[in-house]
Each structure stands twice: as structure tokens, then as C-alpha cells.
Amino acid sequence: MNQKLLVVCLCFSQLLQAQPDAQTDLRKVIDNDLKFAVQQYHVLMNTVPADSMPRTYNAAADRLVTSNLEWWTSGFYPGTLWYLYEFSGDASLRKAAEQKLSILEKEKYYTGNHDLGFMMFCSFGNAYRITKDPAYKEVILTAAQTLTKRYRPSIKAIQSWDSSAAFRCPVIIDNMMNLELLEWSAANGGENQLADIAETHANTTIINHFRPDYSTWHVIDYDLQTGLPRAKKTAQGAADSSSWARGQSWGLYGYTMMYRFTRKKSYLMQARHIADYLIHHPNLPADKIPYWDYSVPGGPDVKRDVSAGAIMASALLELGQYTTGKEKKEYLDVAKTIIVYLSSPAYLATPGKNGGFLLLHSVGSIPHKSEIDVPLTYADYYFVEALLRYKKWYLKK
Ligand code: GLY
Questions:
Q1: Domain of residue 15, residue span
Q2: How far from 311 is each of 4, 63, 90, 274, 378, CA to CA, in Å?
Q3: Cα–chain center distance at 182
Q4: 44/352 Cα distance (integer angstroms)
């Protein structure tokens, strides 16, 4: 066999090995990942101070980076601990999760941003789902009520950030994720008004945030007087006109989740259109882990955003529940591909390394030169969620 042919054959066989197909393989991959995650989070748990939350890991300094409780990511670590407790029954994970909820609870009154859904539902939502402890439900319902304080009737949306030199009344696509707190609360003893606000916000976002190709702007800056957008911008993307990768994943997840609660066709259609845009995007790499912005031509030096891939996988698995035939298969194939590649050494940490985080190579914000090519709590959270969703929905018992 000549040299060239040998190289082609080797590459082809590597591709075949990496390519997900048989379900039995995926069962093994998922089980190994979850067992690994339990062990790895014990490593992380040993380094987290009692009064703060993990945020990322500084590999050069071998140092955990933490956040305070008002930071938007404060719910992901306890949420992941609950998911891993659910999988393993390991009481020490539950104990760690309970300790974190005890310090997080006071944020149910926090009105400083729109992130209460991320903060309080990923954490207390999972805690209540698993334990049915009514005290957790009370926290969720209070947090939902608090979030409504940021609803602005004139723009028919929830204001994301306070006004600043850059923006007057900014609403970001990420905000779709916070609606889960409102929808769940309305369906579980809270006022109907919570769902009304969530749906009004989601409808406004369909009108103002999306371009004709179903990509989304990151930030819409509204005029509170006229109720209309005054500018369409980015904060974390490559350009105002670009498709910031995590924002696209938030949109996909957000509308899929809204369909779960409302069964409104417009939300399902929106999610399907977004999925179509992402899955067929010419800049989506073969392993389906997006570059940090879809509008940036790819290449070996361009950063991936593993968090965007993990969120997309979890969302596509849910969208697969609401679709059939070829379309469903396409969503599941992409989700499978993401899971299999995230489970490979290219993206998954070596046991005991990476500060105890699961995944490598996420991006917080390139324009702010912050958290570039690092582990992040939300990448881990949505990865574990995707593993559990796949196991629950698509693997035979
Ligand atoms: N919600 C902030 C972010 O996705 O970075």
C-alpha cells in the first residue's frame, strides 16, 4: 500500500471510530461520562470555598476562580451536583448541593439583573424536582415574582441589564432561558401573570431579535418611551451583525423549552428554524462544536465554544421529543455527534485535572478578553443535562 493510501485509510478508520452510530456505543459513552463526572466533581468539591461558587479554573496558576452569589452562573454548580446525585445516589454530592443552596437562597430577592432563572431554577428547580421539598418550591416561586420586577410593559419584555453608557434598556437573547422559571412557577402554584409575562417576552423576542435567516442579534436596546428597538447590537459576539454562538444556542433552547410549557406552534416553529440555521451553517465544524461566533470563518486558531455545543446538544434532544421522522433523526444525530466528541480527550478533561471541571475549551467573552478557552460551570451543567436527557429519552432501559 502506498503512503498516501495508507494515510487516507487511517484517517477514514479514525473518523469511523469517532462517528457515533450504534446506540449501544452511546450507552457506554454516556455511562462512562457520568461516572467520570461524579469522580471529577469530588475533585472540584474539595476546592470550592463554603461562601462562594466555582466559576472557572485558571490552569496556568492551578487556581479555582470563584464567583459571588449574584453572578449569573451561581446556579449551575449546585444544579450539576443535583444532576449527578440523581444519577449516582452519592449522598456527599447532595450534601454539597444543599450547602450551596443554603447560601444561594437569599438571591430570590435579587433584582439587579435578569438572570434569576439561570441562578434559581437550575439550582432550586432541580432540587425540588428530585426531592419535592416544599421549601425549595417556595424559593422558586418567590424568585419568579422577583424577576417580574424587571418586566417593562412599554417594550413588552423583561429588561436584561440596567441602563449604562452603552445601552438604555437592553434585552439579550440569553433572557429566553430565564422564562423557564416563570413558566414553571405559573404551572406549579404561582400566578398566571408569570406565564403571561414569559409568553409576551418570547413573542416580542421573535419579532425583534431574529433576522430573516433565524440567526439572532445578541442585544436589542429598546426605547422605553416608544417601546421600539433603538439599536441592534452585540456585547459578546464578533460584530453587531454576527451570530454569537452561545446566543444562538440560548435561543434554540429557549423556544424549545417554551413549547414544552405552552404547546404553542409558533415556539416550536421558531426552535425548528433556529435548529435548521445552526445545523446547516457552513461554519459549523464536522464535530458540531461551534466556533465562538458562527460569523467568524473557522480554522485551527479560532476558538471553539464548548458551552454553546453542550447547550445545543441538550436543546436538540428536547426538540427531538417534539418532532418526527427525518427531522427528529437529524436533531438526534447532531446531538449524538456533539456528545461523542465532547466525550473525547479533545474536549473532556483528564481525570483529576482541569481543576475538577468536566469540559475544556469554552469561551466566556472574547470581546471582553474574559474566560477564553477555559472550563465553565455552565458547559458542564448542560453537558450533564444532555447525557441524562439522552439516557432517559433515547436509551432503552
Ligand atoms: N448569559 C451570559 C452568557 O451567556 O455569557
A1: 3-393
A2: 39, 26, 25, 13, 9
A3: 17
A4: 9
Ligand 1 atom nearest 236 alpha carbon: 5
What is the number of the ligand 1 atom nearest to the C-alpha of 172? 1
Q: Tell me which H or E stretch contains 103.
A: helix 91-104
Q: How far is the CA of 15 from the centre of ligand 1 (A)?
A: 33
Rounded Cα gap, residues 22 and 27, in angstroms: 9
Q: Which three cell numbers, joined as nine digits, stand for 271?
A: 426552535
Q: Please tell me the distance between residue 175's alpha carbon and the centre of ligand 1 in angstroms.
A: 9
Give CA–CA dist 182/199, Å, rounded: 10
Which pLDDT value is given to residue 24? 54
Residue 13 sits in a domain whose CATH number is 1.50.10.10
Cell of 300: 485551527
Q: d(Cα 389, Cα 313) in Å, to the nearest integer?
A: 10
pLDDT of residue 20: 58
- Which protein residue has the closest C-alpha to ligand 1 atom 5? 364
Report the domain count for the chain.
1
Task: Give every CB contact of residue 159 below 8 A, 6+ residues apart in sequence.
Answer: 114, 150, 151, 152, 169, 170, 171, 222
- Pair 144, 182: CB distance under 8 Å: yes
- Return the DSSP state at 239: S
Q: Supply the mean pLDDT for the chain.
A: 95
Structure confidence by residue, pLDDT tens digits, 299-308: 999 999 999 9
Looking at the DSSP bridge assignments, the partners of residue 158 are: 151
| pLDDT surpasses 60 at 216 | yes
Dihedrals phi, psi of 45, to nearest 5 degrees: -55, -35
Please compute the mean of the pLDDT values over residues 172-186 and round it to a whole number.
98
CA distances from 46 to 96, 102, 202 (A): 10, 18, 40
- The predicted pLDDT at position 294 comes to 98
SS3 label, residue 143: helix
